[in-house]
Design a protein that fits this description.
Blueprint (H helix, E strand, L loop, with lengths): L1 E3 L2 E3 L3 H4 L13 H5 L1 E5 L2 E4 L1 H7 L4 H6 L3 H11 L2 H15 L6 H8 L10 E4 L1
Parallel strand pairs: 4-5
Antiparallel strand pairs: 1-2, 3-4
């Protein structure tokens, strides 16, 4: 048996675990990815003030506050298409645009995927 905090996993379980699951997110915490402003080697550079002020908000709350990049990063981290659509709709309503795909938002904001090889975070 493999163990995961609060869970007992059978040996075949990992083969069926979704790639966006917590076991695959060992490199970066959600709050770090959401407020990441860049990378330096194997380190993520984090906006500490924004993380402290808004780090406990979920995707929808971030979008409602107009923090569209942070909200979209939160949705990308979760891997939930419904969350990505919430951010897309909020952005379209705010900016008067008509973006239809998450890929458009990824290009617009420069957010693509969670960096898996990040070893530490530098908070500035």
């Amino acid at each position: 048996m493999y163990t995961y905090p609060g869970h007992r996993l059978s040996p075949g379980f990992l083969l069926n675990w979704p790639i966006t699951g917590k076991l695959w997110r060992s490199g970066m915490k959600r709050e770090d990815f959401v407020f990441c402003i860049g990378y330096q080697g194997d380190s993520a550079v984090i906006d500490g003030q924004a993380k402290k002020e808004f780090g406990n908000l979920d995707t929808k709350a971030l979008a409602e506050k107009g923090l569209f990049r942070a909200a979209f990063c939160s949705a990308v981290y979760s891997g939930d298409n419904a969350e990505m659509q919430i951010v897309l709709n909020a952005y379209n309503n705010s900016a008067g645009t008509d973006l239809t795909k998450a890929e458009d938002m990824k290009r617009l904001l420069g957010v693509f995927e969670v960096e898996e090889d990040i070893k530490k975070s530098i908070v500035v």
